[in-house]
Design a protein that fits this description.
Elements: E1 11-14, E2 17-19, E3 27-28, E4 30-34, E5 37-42, H1 44-48, E6 56-59, E7 64-67, E8 69-74, H2 76-84, E9 87-88, H3 97-110, E10 117-122, H4 135-141, E11 147-151, E12 156-159, H5 161-166, E13 179-181, E14 187-192, H6 193-200, H7 207-223, E15 226-231, H8 237-248, E16 255-258, H9 266-278, E17 295-298, H10 328-340, E18 345-349, H11 352-368, E19 376-379, H12 385-393, E20 397-400, H13 403-416, H14 426-432, E21 436-438, H15 449-458, H16 476-483, H17 485-489, E22 508-511, E23 528-533, E24 536-540
Parallel strand pairs: 1-6, 2-7, 8-15, 9-10, 10-11, 15-16, 17-18, 18-19, 19-20, 20-21
Antiparallel strand pairs: 1-4, 2-3, 4-5, 7-22, 11-12, 12-14, 13-14, 22-23, 23-24
Helix pairs in contact: 2-7, 10-11, 13-15, 15-16
The chain binds zinc ion.
Length: about 550
């Protein structure tokens, strides 16, 4: 019996604008895929030799073929929950508190008494009333159900009386400013940071709800050409196994790099990181579909809340305190331990006070124990030139979120004044040779990489058109690099993915246009036509 493996490709893309994102930024016309690997990339003539009788040939007709997008910071489980099992109250679609309450009343009518009602997505500054909803308003529409209504950033949320009781919440239990009270000392229902993340542990989800969430987010990612994600947090040790089940069952197809972090707050995070490090497990464990990522700590609040820990007062309200969750000593201790165990570390740091804490902690760790590392800072919202220099010197990478400008450029200008010129400063990172990858931080903003690319170029508020930090705009090729190969770099996987080169994993995306030729203003309307992961076409528009 004569049997052999075909010498031809399974799929050939040709007649396109193939942005390889290789070291020389080569643009070519065609690519061939065999199995799960890229077999050839080059001009039409070179690649067409790979076409055999069984090869699927896809005529790109001039469209762009790119490495699959790598979202270097998003929350797959949380985005999925919003899509599948949580009431969506985003302020574009539900612009009034009355509208939110109507949705919750409807849910209460359909939900058995005593069962949690979960809603999310409001942004108080975009609500007509210009304030957070209250516990009393929630009590009025859902007196018999515990209710969680989180703000779009998930760093804050409003809870009704039954929910506060379920969590045994009191102002004394948390740091000042985290449990909000009125002038009579009565809780308004608004919980911030640690008090809010603590409540994540009280609100329960079933396995079916988790799996439905993962599927919903996976579908969304495929629809937008995202082939790998760094999952920046979910519910720690109890969901990490669920992610693996979902991958094995084909519910999640995108490659995952989950950070070692716990969404239930600081105490749980420290516990979980220590548990893991104490096993003696080495960093990098996993495979190309699921690899355990950096150790992550959450250092401060959010940029739009605003609750980020800033060195100077907020520009719009000098009395507003940012929230720094770890002391320098606490951050030093955990960073040092992870570094000494051979793990890479990252953090959520938005305000410059928080960024400085992380830079200090990494500096101490690498000074005490110099070794090659891939430590990074996620968000790295505010900084000055001095911090940028230190980030470069310490060889720290950054995961930035220019897409935030799309939602918040106007608010940032109000909150941070001239500091927006060093906010998510992509141009400065390029000038200093700092490796920067991009993430949507979805569900904070939408997963669509086109919004991230557009915002890296324009830094513009989608509603008012206000531009924040004109001087930090960058060009499209640099932005594409940040959303592909640099995303691979910050998860230590640049050898296997992130560019279209022979021998790499066949993760790629066909866009609806040639994005190097359309006016950049039109980037946001570009769609994903085909998404391929591991050589398989998983989405066609
Ligand atoms: Zn995040």
């Amino acid at each position: 019996m004569n049997k052999s493996i075909s010498m031809y490709a399974d799929v050939v893309f040709h007649n396109g604008s193939v942005i390889t994102v290789d070291n020389s930024d080569n643009i070519c016309q065609a690519a061939a895929v065999k199995g799960n690997i890229i077999a050839a990339v080059g001009d039409n003539e070179f690649v067409e030799k790979w076409i055999g009788p069984e090869t699927e040939v896809i005529d790109l007709k001039g469209r762009t073929l790119l490495p699959g997008f790598i979202d270097a910071h998003m929350h797959l489980g949380m985005r999925g929950q919003n899509a599948a099992v949580i009431i969506d109250c985003n302020s574009d679609d539900v612009p009034t508190i009355g509208g939110i309450m109507e949705k919750i009343r409807e849910a209460a009518e359909k939900t058995p008494k005593g069962t949690w009602i979960k809603a999310t997505g409001y942004e108080q500054s975009k609500l007509k009333e210009g304030r957070h909803p209250t516990r009393d308003e929630l009590d009025e529409v859902a007196p018999n159900h515990p209710v969680q209504l989180t703000r779009c950033c998930l760093h804050m949320g409003v809870y009704n009386t039954l929910a506060l009781e379920a969590g045994e919440i009191s102002p004394e239990k948390f740091a000042p400013g985290e449990v909000i009270v009125d002038e009579n000392g009565r809780m308004t229902g608004l919980l911030k940071e640690t008090a809010c993340t603590y409540m994540w542990d009280i609100v329960k989800y079933t396995r079916e709800e988790y799996m439905a969430s993962f599927k919903a987010c996976n579908d969304l990612l495929l629809e937008h050409g995202v082939t790998s994600v760094c999952d920046a947090s979910f519910f720690g040790e109890q969901t990490i196994g669920l992610y693996q089940d979902a991958i094995n069952e084909g519910i999640i197809n995108v490659r995952m790099y989950p950070l070692v972090y716990h969404a239930y707050g600081k105490a749980k995070t420290i516990w979980w990181i220590n548990q893991l490090l104490d096993t003696g497990l080495k960093a990098g464990i996993g495979d190309e579909f699921f690899r355990l990522g950096h150790v992550k700590i959450l250092l401060d609040g959010s940029s739009s809340g605003p609750s980020a820990a800033t060195r100077e007062p907020y520009s719009h309200d000098p009395d507003l305190e940012g929230i720094l969750i770890y002391t320098q000593e606490e951050a030093d201790e955990i960073v040092m331990k992870a570094h000494n165990c051979g793990w890479n570390v990252t953090c959520h740091a938005v305000g410059d006070k928080a960024v400085e804490v992380m830079v200090n902690a990494i500096e101490k760790a690498v000074t005490a124990n110099p070794r090659l590392h891939r430590h990074r800072i996620d968000h790295c919202g505010l900084q000055d030139i001095e911090l940028i220099r230190r980030i470069k010197e310490l060889n720290i990478s950054v995961v930035s979120n220019p897409g935030f400008f799309h939602e918040n450029a106007e608010a940032y200008t109000k909150y941070y004044g001239d500091r927006v010129n060093y906010m998510f400063p992509l141009k400065s990172y390029l000038e200093h040779g700092i490796t920067v990858a991009l993430g949507s931080d979805s569900p904070v903003i939408e997963v669509d990489p086109m919004i991230g690319l557009y915002s890296a170029l324009f830094r513009e508020d989608k509603r008012s058109g206000v531009v924040a930090g004109e001087c930090q705009k960058i060009g499209l090729m640099d932005a594409i690099r940040m959303y592909t190969i640099n995303g691979a770099y910050v998860s230590c996987e640049e050898d296997i993915k992130g560019s279209l080169e022979a021998g790499k994993l066949a993760d790629m995306v066909v866009l609806s246009e040639n994005i190097l030729e359309i006016p950049p203003e039109n980037l946001k309307s570009v769609k994903t036509d085909i998404t391929m992961i591991d050589g398989k076409i998983l989405y066609r528009r």
